[in-house]
Amino acid sequence: MKVKIVNTSNKGVSFARNLGINQPSGQYLLFVDSDDELSINALKYLSIMLNKKDRDLILFGFSLTGDNNRKNDTSILKSIANQNTDCKMNILKSILSTKNNILGYVWRAVYSLDFIKKNNIFFETHLKISEDYLFLLQSVEHSNNLFVITEEFYKYNLGETSMSNKFVPTLLNDMVWVNNWIESNILTVYPQFFVGFNCLVANTYIRYEQNAIRNKEENFMLKYREIKLNKRKYNFQRSINQVISHLDKFDFKSKIGVILFRIHLDIVYELLFNIKERKN
């Protein structure tokens, strides 16, 4: 096995990944984060599958360590793999869902490098959040030849370096940017995903509220006023009003949030989440 190491100044994960995509050698593309690892023989099995038939991408499962409250999506992959309907449409529908969905991690697939370059799929370097979700979504949307396997080839470690529970200053702008991209590029082609999209927007507001509460540089009332202003600025209430009749598409905790937001009791959610964060 030949290994090529490319050194560069720290310009962010998206810049580094794009640099890797632009390397002139190799047929396939696989991403591994620094604190994660591939399972034993993952590359061997993926190579065998790719040699049997060329694919734009192969989507596979992952195991998860470091947080007993988080789950993977192997059961969802099995459900899709067992269906005889359009695989691409089922994957798109699942990625654009908020419950029982395929999680949009870029490292959970192997990609044809020719396919990626032909369709000009690269990471948006200005995004700090959801850049990998967008890359996977674009890859699935452009693909005409994808495959789903249920083997858990990737080991995802949710350690202290994970961004999942940290305050991210750009989270709101990044997630809104991605939502706007989905609305312009996916919904115009697949209007049947409209309900799922509105659930994503409502989920964006939930993620934003949680992220804002994690900001230790501001007191609670400043956070409350800022959240209220941004809720109005991005018209989150419209999507919340539309998804109130689709609560089955949310998990229990998110469902409680949507109900509180619908009756304008956002501050109750914020107080409860603030108490939870202090305990942690």
TrEMBL record:
<protein>
    <submittedName>
        <fullName>EpsI</fullName>
    </submittedName>
</protein>
<feature type="domain" description="Glycosyltransferase 2-like">
    <location>
        <begin position="4"/>
        <end position="77"/>
    </location>
</feature>
<dbReference type="InterPro" id="IPR001173">
    <property type="entry name" value="Glyco_trans_2-like"/>
</dbReference>
<dbReference type="Pfam" id="PF00535">
    <property type="entry name" value="Glycos_transf_2"/>
</dbReference>
<dbReference type="InterPro" id="IPR029044">
    <property type="entry name" value="Nucleotide-diphossugar_trans"/>
</dbReference>
<dbReference type="GO" id="GO:0016758">
    <property type="term" value="F:hexosyltransferase activity"/>
</dbReference>
